[in-house]
């Protein structure tokens, strides 16, 4: 069978093009750093590589989310640290003010220091993050969550929601706390608080209350001690119960509690005892009560008793507020620790994804893959040169050259 010159040229060109294509494919592998450049190189591996790459991208997104969550929680933890220090300072000032050796001028000086602490706490309660959002406003973080009225009282105008952020596929984490939870609440484990009625005109003061029997069936209830003075005889009753003789310095026990009373009550005076969560839980109101009593000079016994009772109540409220802030701060710390744990798990997951992806695409950073591709590159280069030499030789095989 005779083979025409055209057929020889076509076969030689096809072989040359094929060798050229193989050589360029291996060169592209070296240039991109991977064996699987196009899906046609290994359809199954390419398909799986796309899935793994998507998983790697999602994992990275969660990593970025955790960075954002960590920044928010770290800022909150820093503010809560300052708030707890401020409350501790306020408690120290109140202990100082409780001393009977201080004059009214001395207490006014203490009040000045306490007012500075109060302003610090308000500033921290309205703290913002790096984007200008208020930390403790809930979802309403565009404006200050705590506002001061014309009479000086502070109220919360944020909401009770808390911002959350997804830090992993199966974990939605709270990345903030609202101001009501921090500054206007107490922990459920907070004990009892006693408070004298603002209208008391006698000189009775209290110490306590102390818990003596939590198993008492009435423990947990609120109680009101009411005094009655008739014909020079002073009695008291609890929640309108039977009258009992009042003996100064003797503890009054009710509902598993004990409170010690001193001084002489006036007719109609009263003292209320209740769980801290049912009494004043607003830190700012506690400051306001403390400042009001320290700024007011006490002349007679009734005014001195009112001051002593208010200081007693305020110190216990400061204790409860401090415990609450420290509890929230501990919660923030536990969430920061959880972020570290999730980071560790995600790092291992990302490492596995990276290794799987590298194996699927034939990453040339692997010495074995690199050596194989370089060997193929050299082979394809030799094959291309051979095809080129054969084409040159075939091109010269013509009868016209011998005529």
TrEMBL record:
Location (main, coarse): other
Superkingdom of the organism of origin: Bacteria
Similarity comment: family membership: Belongs to the bacterial flagellin family.
Record's protein name: Flagellar hook-associated protein FlgL
Organism: Alloalcanivorax venustensis ISO4
This protein's encoding gene: flgL
Keyword Secreted: yes
Annotated compartments: Bacterial flagellum; Secreted
Entry-linked Pfam families: Flagellin_N
Keyword Secreted attributed: yes
PANTHER family on file: FLAGELLAR HOOK-ASSOCIATED PROTEIN 3 (PTHR42792:SF1), FLAGELLIN (PTHR42792)
Gene3D superfamilies reported for this sequence: f41 fragment of flagellin, N-terminal domain
Flagellin N-terminal domain span: 3-140
């Amino acid at each position: 069978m005779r083979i025409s010159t055209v057929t020889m040229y076509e076969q030689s060109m096809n072989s040359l093009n094929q060798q050229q294509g193989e050589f360029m494919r291996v060169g592209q592998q070296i240039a991109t750093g991977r064996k699987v450049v196009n899906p046609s190189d290994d359809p199954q591996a390419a398909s799986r590589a796309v899935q793994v790459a998507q998983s790697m991208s999602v994992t990275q997104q969660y990593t970025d989310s955790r960075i954002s969550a960590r920044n928010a929680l770290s800022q909150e933890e820093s503010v809560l640290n300052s708030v707890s220090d401020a409350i501790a300072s306020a408690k120290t000032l109140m202990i100082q003010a409780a001393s009977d050796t201080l004059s009214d001028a001395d207490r006014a000086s203490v009040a000045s220091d306490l007012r500075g602490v109060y302003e610090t706490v308000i500033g921290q309660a309205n703290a913002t993050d790096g984007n200008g959002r208020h930390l403790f406003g809930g979802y309403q973080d565009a404006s200050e969550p705590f506002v001061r009225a014309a009479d000086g009282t502070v109220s919360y105008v944020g909401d009770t929601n808390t911002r959350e952020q997804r830090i992993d596929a199966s974990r939605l984490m709270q990345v903030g706390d609202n101001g009501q939870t921090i500054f206007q609440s107490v922990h459920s484990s907070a004990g009892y608080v006693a408070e004298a009625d603002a209208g008391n005109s006698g000189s009775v003061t209290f110490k306590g209350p102390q818990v003596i029997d939590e198993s008492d069936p009435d423990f947990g209830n609120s109680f009101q001690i009411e005094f009655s003075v008739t014909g020079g005889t002073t009695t008291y009753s609890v929640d309108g119960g039977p009258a009992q003789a009042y003996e100064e310095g003797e503890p009054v026990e009710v509902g598993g509690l004990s409170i010690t009373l001193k001084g002489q009550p006036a007719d109609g005076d009263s003292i209320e005892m209740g769980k801290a969560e049912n009494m004043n839980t607003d830190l700012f109101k506690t400051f306001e009560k403390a400042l009001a009593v320290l700024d007011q000079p006490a002349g007679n016994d009734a005014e001195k008793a009112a001051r002593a009772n208010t200081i007693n109540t305020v110190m216990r409220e400061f204790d409860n507020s401090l415990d609450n802030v420290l509890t929230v701060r501990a919660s923030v710390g536990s969430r920061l620790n959880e972020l570290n744990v999730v980071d560790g798990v995600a790092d291992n997951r990302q490492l596995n994804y990276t290794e799987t992806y590298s194996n699927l695409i034939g990453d040339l950073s692997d010495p074995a893959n690199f050596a194989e591709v370089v060997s193929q590159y050299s082979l394809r280069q030799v094959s291309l040169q051979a095809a080129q030499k054969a084409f040159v030789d075939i091109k010269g095989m013509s009868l016209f050259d011998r005529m």
